[in-house]
Amino acid sequence: MTTPTWDEPGGPMPSDEFRDATQAIMANIEQVIEGKSATVRLALAVLLAEGHLLIEDVPGVGKTKLAKALARSIDCSVRRIQFTPDLLPSDVTGVSVYNQETRDFEFKPGAVFANLVVGDEINRASPKTQSALLESMEERQVTVDGTTYELQAPFMVIATQNPIEMEGTYPLPEAQRDRFTARIAMGYPDPRAELAMLSGHGAHDPLSDLRSVADAATVRRLIATVRNVHAADAVQQYAIALVTATREAPEIRLGASPRCTLQLLRTAKAVAALEGRDYVLPDDLQALAVPVLAHRIIPTADAQLNRRTTDAIVAEIVHRLPLPHDRNRSPYDTRNTGGAQYESRGL
Amino acid sequence: MSGRRRLGLVAAGATLLAAAPIASIFDGYTWLMQCLFTVGLIAGAAVGARTLRFPAWAQALSMIVVLLLTLTWIFPSGDEFFIPQPSTFSHFADLFSQAGQDTRSYGVPVPDREGLLFVTVLGIGSVAIAVDLLTVVARKPALAGLPMLAIYSVPVAVYVDSVPVLPFIIGATGFLWLLVSDNIDRVRRFGRRFTGDGRDVDVWEPSPLAAAGRRLGVIGVIAAVLVPLAVPTISGGLLSRLTQNGAGVGVGPGNGSGGRINLFASLSGQLTQTATVELVRLKTTEQTPYYLRFGVADQLNNNGFGSRSPNGENVAQGLPDPRQSTAGGAFADYKAEVEVSESLAQGMLPLYQNTTGIDGLQNGWFFDDNQQVVYSSRRSTKGLKYNFDYVRARYSQSQLRQAEPLSPDDPIMRLNTTHPEDETVSNLVKGLVAGKKTEYDKVRALYDHFSSKNNFSYRLSTQPVTNSSEIASFLQTKAGYCQQYAAALAWMAREAGIPARVAFGFTRGERDGDTFVITNRNAHAWTEIYFKGFGWIPFDATPAASVAGAARSDYAPDIDLPTQAPAASESAAVPGADPSAAAPGADRPDRPDFSDQSASGSTGSESSGLSGTALLIIALAALLLALLLVPALRRVLVRKHRHAATAREEPKVTRLGGPDDIVVTAETVKARADAHAAWDELMDTMIDFRIPIDPTETPRVTAQRLITDAVLLDEPASAATLLGSAEERARYARKPLQGGELTAALGQVRRGLSRSANRRTRIAAVLMPPSVLMRWRLGLGEASTRLVTFGGRLRDLLAKASPRRLLPHRGR
Questions:
Q1: Which residues of chain B make contact with A331, given a CB cutoff of 8 A?
Q2: SS3 sequence, B152-177?
Q3: Other CB atoms within 10 A of residue B725 CB
Q4: pLDDT one-digit tens code per residue, B193-207
Q5: B738-791 residue pLDDT tens
Q6: Residues of A in contact with B697 (CB under 8 A)
Q7: Which is nearest to B201 in space by CA: B191, B209, B193?
């Protein structure tokens, strides 16, 4: 079996086919995770945007379940790593062991060699071990003992973690956080969904019934379709403006990286495709700003003292930043005239 | 405390400025010197008292003492030495009663009478004390405006007609100066005042408070100018003066000595006047009376004819009987009874010539023997009823021929023959009087010149007679109306060395039973020429056919009549010789008439709604209305333009190839332009209906918010969604939305918005669209910002050239 490279994901799909395929995956996952369609859709969007997903929430809200359901829905190799404090980097990447028969060192691939890698409780491992994922997540390769091994496509890391205030957790290093495309929170289910969960899960685990509805090849084609989504100049400018605003905001010590800009636009394309559009809207960027930007930035000490969460800071930036216009029409847009900002509500 | 002392000096200065209106009352400027001296000493006393930290009562007392001392020095009785004695006060009392007499016997402008000067200095001094106390001690400078206004009330009370505006402006400037100084002093008392000098603070830094103040100020000034215009009774003063000059008639505001009433302006050709206002009802025992007469213009200079201020004795002392001073002519006694309507308010009494006695007048009317007019500087004819006896003199041509030339030294000759030098006029006169032996024949030659045979015609819509050169040009154009005829004949007579002047009054009017009803259409001017031994004889050169109620006499017959009646009898009556003359012009709508200055008491409803002032008001109102409608019009135009938005140019850029293949065809370009135009229109509509616009919102969100904010339902809601998605796709998609009914959608949204908006918003959206106003405001702001930026750059540039930068840096 030839391993497809990342640059040749396959041909794009017609829109009906794309819609059917993505809806099948989402419906499949929603059999397990009830009442969280927005979260499920975002998780899928991250997969189609060739990114990695970080699910952060308190214990017991279904983080692992979402990760596993997504993995199960796609017929591809899935590996799971339970991050524990004593986990070693070689457990993740793999290790060369001495084969007595061949009298040579032989590489035993680690858990990271799969299409989908589910890293559970990632912040319970030491930063040393967490760092083992850095190369694989960005460069989609693993180098052990000087030998570089390519990873399969698609490759996605779905990690879950508890908020860092929880006991026994290590904060993820900035470099690691920056490699995750989006951080999503599960949130508690609403009472109705919880009731359905009680009645459903009482008999058996729905996860065990889950069948795969797409294979790796299909996913590659989906990814190709997403890449083909159109992002107008104005939208790209808006993405840049959003990211730049995080770098310039007085409350933020570390802003978002250029990698973040790229991933923001990619995810927006995936979201647009999932909504059946072949073009990105600023609305997509606005909706994605918090999941994609918030976990990367570091607020200043002042902002932390004021108990300003990064989510709130990013949301405010989105609310404050005017849309760029792709044409010369700005009778209302008085940003450049200085001073007389149009006070819309005071009219 | 230096601030208080300075404020005291400002108060004195402001008082002097506020005294400016007094200038229009006095002939000379002695009063000013005396007031300067007095107010200066009072201010000095105040400063001294404050330097010595006197209490407030002592400050007031010291100022009063100084005023008393100053009065003693300026108006000494002769007994005192430096300090007022009891005799000084009795002298003051004398001066007071003398001033009382003077006010009754002198018309304005008055000469330097000591009593009047005393009262003036006393008054201004008292005002200076009051202003000082109110400003510095009571710290209520606004109240100081009241005593200052009291000064202005003096000319207002004295002048029946309009009051000069300039002194009031000077006084108001003084008041403002006082207010500003007080405010600066107040701010200074908090600490150092920030002027921005050297502190990187720009004095002209726009501050919202200052801007609001300026706006309020502008609105206040506009309202203060416009509101009195709307009140019909206040029609005197600057504006009506302007409108009169604009209407084109008048010899300018009188002569240099501050003439009282511009009679030519009163007789202005208000060409648009349509209404007829009754001015005088008159009963007389005479069957066919001549013209009623009330004023005279007897000064001729380069500015044309002007009136001398009348000067004379109280009417109660009796009027002269012309029979005693006149040599020839037949006389007859008549009685007349006059009832002046409310619409005619002037300080001059309409009378027949040669009035011998008047009954029913209050005190305060004076008779000028020279001008033969009865006038009052305080009273007005408004609503007046009086009787008078008069003598009608009848002359024949042969009698008048006996009149000899006056000697050049005769005062009448000196006063009434001055005239400007004009070659055309003098040549014309020389040609006309050549060969004529008697004075009367000369006058007749001049009088006959104004006939239709010489192509003279009556026309109201002529150039205004504002100066002598235009009277001269009337002799060339030969078209004009009564005042031009009267002025021209008077000038020509003067040119010929015969005393002449212009008389003002009314023609006979219309007979109503035994009364004559005289309206504004009967206003008239004619010439009076002096014949030795006969006195002033009226000549009316205006074509009789064109003047309602015109009268002709034997010695001055209607020269335009084709069948001129021969001078039947030597003693033909002055009036009524030509009954035909009265009829034709009776209902001419374009007769000149009175308004404004002479009839300043007339109410708007009675006088026509179309007088010049009214016309100006209407024009201003129309202009205002038009200006108010400009935003609405602009909005409609913008909407039309957008609805018609199409792609005007063929697409030039075609991006092909690559995944971002954007389709660029004429249709898509047009669809994009349409969507943008529709979106702009939607934005403007939202602004019009006061739904806020948020530049951070995407089209989709804006459309959704519009639906929820304005509670749009069904069709308008789907129309808003359609507009949103059209704009969204036009901006961001490869292919814009095509075939959407955007114009219809806009209409639906607008209807939906207007349904959910309240009435005020709805009306404002149509008449005063906020979108247009806002765009203008922003444009204005941008322009001013550019200007300020440019100014700053210029200043920097200039600063580079300044040699001061070479100096060592000043420590800061």
A1: 680, 683, 774-775, 778
A2: HHHHHHHCCCCCCCHHHHHHHHHHHH
A3: 17
A4: 555 454 544 444 455
A5: 777 788 888 888 888 888 888 888 888 888 888 888 888 888 989 999 999 999
A6: 323
A7: B193
pLDDT at B203: 46
Tell whether B675 and B531 lie within a shared domain: no
Tell if the CB–CB gap between B701 and A283 is shorter than 8 Å: yes
- Give, in order, the Cα–Cα distances in Å from B489 to each of A198, B250, B495, B543: 120, 17, 10, 13
Count the neighbouring beta carbons within 10 Å of the beta carbon of residue A131: 16
Residue-level pLDDT at A46: 92
Both structure tokens of A220: 């590659």
| pLDDT score recorded for residue B350 | 86
Residue of A nearest to B689 (CA): A347
Shortest CA gap B180–chain A (Å): 30
Q: Which of B154, B172, B192 is the last residue of a domain?
A: B192
Give a yes or no: residue B117 inside a domain: yes
Among A338, A340, A347, select the one facing B770 at the smallest CB separation: A347
Average pLDDT over every residue of B87-111:
80
Percentage of the residues of chain B whose pLDDT score is greater than 90: 6
And the tokens for A315? 């949301």
* Inter-chain residue contact B778 with A320, CB threshold 8 Å: no
Task: For chain A, say whether B700 makes contact (Cβ under 8 Å).
Answer: yes
Tell whether the model's pLDDT for residue B419 goes beyond 60: yes
Cβ-based contacts of B778 with chain A (< 8 Å): 331, 334, 337, 340, 342
- Residue B127 belongs to what domain range? 2-192
Q: For each successive 10 residues of chain A (347 residues), what is the average pLDDT?
A: 49 83 89 85 90 87 84 85 88 87 87 87 85 86 87 86 76 86 87 82 74 86 89 89 90 90 93 90 91 90 87 90 62 37 34
Give yes or no: residues B538 and B658 share one domain.
no
Q: Does a structural domain hold residue B71? A: yes
Q: Which residues pair with B510 in a beta bridge?
A: B517
Percent of the residues in chain B that have a pLDDT greater than 70, as a whole number:
78
pTM, two decimals, is 0.49
Tell me yes or no: is domain A229-324 CATH 1.10.8.80.
Answer: yes
Quick check: B651 pLDDT over 70? no
Strands, E, within B396-472: which ranges? Answer: 457-458
Nearest to A179 by CA among A48, A5, A295: A295
Residues B524 and B547 placed together within one structural domain of the fold: yes
Is B239 within a domain?
no
Boundary of a domain, candidates B145, B168, B192: B192
ipTM of the prediction greater than 0.90, yes or no: no
* pLDDT tens-digit map of B489-508: 888 888 888 888 888 888 88
- Where in chain A are the domains? 8-228, 229-324
Domain A8-228's class?
alpha beta
Three-state DSSP class for B316?
Answer: helix
Residues B678 and B799 in one domain: no
3-class state of residue B278 by DSSP = strand
The DSSP line for B465-516 is: --SHHHHHHHHHH-EE-HHHHHHHHHHHHHHTT--EEEEEEE---EEETTEE
Q: B279 and B403, same structural domain?
A: yes
The CATH number for B452's domain is: 3.10.620.30
Q: What does the pLDDT read at residue A36?
A: 85
| Nearest Cα to Cα of residue B582 among B276, B290, B266, B264 | B290
Q: Å from A126 to nearest chain B CA? A: 42
Distance of CA A151 to the CA centre of its chain: 18
Residues B716 and B796 occupy one common structural domain: no
For A345, the closest of B692, B734, B770 (CB atoms) is B692
pLDDT digits (tens, 9 = 90+) for B671-717: 888 888 888 888 888 888 888 888 888 888 889 888 888 888 888 88
Decide if B577 is inside a domain.
Answer: no
Instruction: Give how many domains chain B has, as a whole number.
Output: 4
Q: What's the token pair of residue B89?
A: 């006060």
